[in-house]
Amino acid sequence: MKLAYISSLDENVTSGGAHLRITAIKRIYQLLGLDCDEYYNDWPKNTFSLLPYLQSLYYGKQTRILFKRKNLVIKDTPIIHLDNIRQFYWLDDPKSFLIYNAHNLEFENFYGREESSFKRRFEEYELDRIAQSDLTMVCSE
Question: Across-strand partners of 6?
């Protein structure tokens, strides 16, 4: 069975903690008998949209990078692995089984212990994305 692994790394990255995590996860998929096609972060092209700017007004300006759009077309793949929350916006209404690797919680990365309406709204958004996935994987320290 085919699996599309959408990596959070650029194609030329070959070391570091994220590379180790991704290599380990892909190895697990291979041991499970899945044919793993990798799509690197720098492959899809950015597409212009006003939505990231509007979302940054709602969720906080520092989160804008998470809402940038890219055009990624994946066909005839029953399983898609998303390695970052921003990748939910790269696919056009995927019909595939979605695995989301919530290896870190972005609302904690962006807001830490801060209490604000931006943090609460973004936390709800992130939890909604986790609920939207068919399977949530947590591969972290």
Answer: 39, 82
